[in-house]
């Protein structure tokens, strides 16, 4: 049988000053003691002070740095004359009464595409006769452009688009046309060219090309005796110049 439970004769002293009198809990008081609020205020103030000092330093540094070159470029262009005299003396025969623009409608290189669209927008605003030659629609324009510059003694020159000829005279690329337009000199070169309507061609829709009628745009013809052969009436894309708006 179980022995009856007896009361302990050991007297436990009351310790009202500390509820944890055991040695195993001696560190709990130190862990549970709340930090003095003044310490948080001191740490927070030191952090905000560092942020304030850093912001002040960065602000003063940005004011002391010189402005980038691209910001100063427009002011420089306004004071200088367009470098038209530095352009090579290259001419196109048979283009005395129109503007010839070599460009591309492909968006492979974004900067080139935007330059081409900018030049087209500037020139179309004068409502004169423009012969737009898209190199992406017909590769013969690229050979033609290389031949023009090689005959002018610039065979080693790296060609970029667009290239503009006004009245048969080479005027430059996108940057030269922008400068001439801003200075007002471009209007003087265009004066005397025949004016045209600003409407879109009803035949090609403004693309300057239509499908070849002989091969239906396939660039291939079938002959019974010889089989298939390349169509000679169109380019490699099966396109021909629009007879309605072609200059």
Report what the structure shows.
The protein is α+β, with helices and mostly antiparallel strands and 247 residues long. Among the domains are: 111 residues, Glutaredoxin (3-Layer(aba) Sandwich), CATH 3.40.30; 48 residues, no CATH class. The chain is built from 7 helices and 8 strands. It has a 4-stranded mixed sheet with strand order 2-1-3-4. A two-stranded antiparallel ribbon has the order 5-8. Strand 1, helix 4 and strand 2 form a beta-alpha-beta unit. Helix 4 packs parallel to helix 6. The N and C termini lie far apart (125 Å). Pfam families: Glutaredoxin (PF00462), GRXCR1-2_C (PF23733). This is Glutaredoxin domain-containing protein.
For this entry, give a set of tags.
four-stranded mixed β-sheet; Glutaredoxin; 7 helices; 247 residues; alpha+beta
The strand count comes to 8
Approximate strand percentage:
5-15%
The CATH topology of the domain at 88-198:
Glutaredoxin
Give unreliable regions as ranges.
39-44, 70-82
What is the H-and-E element order? HHHEHEHEEHHEEEE
Q: From the 3D coordinates, which CATH architecture of the domain at 88-198 would you assign?
A: 3-Layer(aba) Sandwich
Annotated CATH homologous superfamily of the domain at 88-198:
Glutaredoxin
Question: How are the strands ordered across the major sheet?
Answer: 2-1-3-4
Highest CATH level, the class of the domain at 88-198: Alpha Beta
What is the helix tally?
Answer: 7
Radius of gyration: 41 Å
């Amino acid at each position: 049988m179980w022995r009856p439970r007896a009361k302990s004769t050991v007297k436990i002293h009351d310790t009202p000053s500390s509820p944890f009198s055991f040695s195993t809990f001696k560190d709990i008081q130190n862990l549970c003691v709340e930090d003095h609020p003044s310490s948080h205020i001191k740490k927070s103030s030191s952090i905000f002070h560092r942020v304030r000092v850093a912001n002040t330093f960065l602000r003063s540094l940005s004011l002391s740095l010189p402005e980038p070159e691209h910001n100063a470029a427009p002011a420089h262009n306004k004071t200088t004359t367009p470098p038209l005299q530095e352009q090579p003396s290259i001419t196109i025969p048979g283009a005395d009464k129109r503007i010839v623009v070599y460009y591309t409608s492909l968006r492979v290189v974004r900067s080139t595409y935007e330059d081409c669209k900018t030049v087209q927008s500037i020139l179309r605003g004068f409502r004169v006769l423009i012969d737009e030659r898209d190199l992406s629609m017909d590769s013969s324009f690229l050979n033609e452009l290389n031949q023009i510059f090689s005959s002018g003694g610039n065979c080693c020159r790296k060609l970029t688009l667009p290239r503009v000829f006004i009245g048969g005279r080479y005027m430059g690329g996108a940057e030269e046309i922008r400068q001439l337009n801003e200075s007002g000199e471009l209007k003087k070169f265009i004066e005397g060219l025949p004016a045209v309507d600003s409407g879109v061609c009803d035949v090609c829709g403004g693309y300057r090309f239509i499908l070849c009628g002989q091969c239906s745009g396939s660039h291939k013809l079938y002959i019974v005796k010889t089989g298939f052969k390349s169509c000679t009436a169109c380019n490699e894309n099966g396109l021909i110049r629009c007879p309605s708006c072609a200059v």
